[in-house]
Fold this sequence. Notes:
- By secondary structure, the chain is an alpha/beta fold.
- It has helices at 15-25, 46-56, 68-77, 83-88, 92-97, 109-116, 145-149; strands at 5-8, 32-35, 61-64, 122-124, 127-129, 166-169, 180-181, 185-187, 198-202, 207-211.
- The strands form two sheets. It has a five-stranded mixed β-sheet with strand order 3-2-1-9-10, covered by helices on one side.
- Bound molecules: manganese (II) ion.
- Residues 10, 38, 67-69, 131-132, 171 line the site of manganese (II) ion.
Amino acid sequence: MADRLIAIGDIHGCDRALRGLLRAIAPDASDTLVFLGDFVDRGPNPRQVIEIILQLQEITRVVAIKGNHEEMLEAVIQHKLDLSMWLKHGGLSTLDSYEFVGELDFLPAAHAAFFADLQDYFEQDNFFFTHAAYDPLTDLPEQPWEELRWHSLRDEVPAPHSSGKTAIVGHTANPTGDCVDLGHLICIDTFCYGGGFLTALDVHRRAVWQAKNDGTLR
Length: 218
Ligand SMILES: [Mn+2]
């Protein structure tokens, strides 16, 4: 099946779920995998998640979007955010997985480069991808970071974007484990770290894969 465009939701350190999904998807060089961000924090093994994605870049096209948790990680490393703030948002699992012992330069070089290269958004065909949400009347390159990475759909669902394209987002976890398809916006954060699923969505065919964090498929 050629030229698939597949979005993957909030992983939050759930490395076994990610492996399970990738086994099912079996990506090759013709595919594009768009990761919606929140690779780190809360779940068991953020470092291993980044290792898996670095290896994946050797066999398929990977687009990696920055989540609010990567924003916090970056700010802590740059001494712009207090470590205690990050810890309140689940940063401990990330620190543990990198065997943090007090020095803020704990990232291996390849991982630091991965985080530095994360995208604010991605656009292809009739779709655009962000971590959390968007401002409906603002062009994609001008979107405010609060909307891109922090806005919860529980507070407000944005109107259709002025581009007419369908938004694919994560961030607002649905504890039932189901994707939320609102037509102009599809949210695929299905609460993997909290006992739900990690979701992948083939946006053209509307095919869904879901894995629990023991790696088994739904
Ligand atoms: Mn998030």
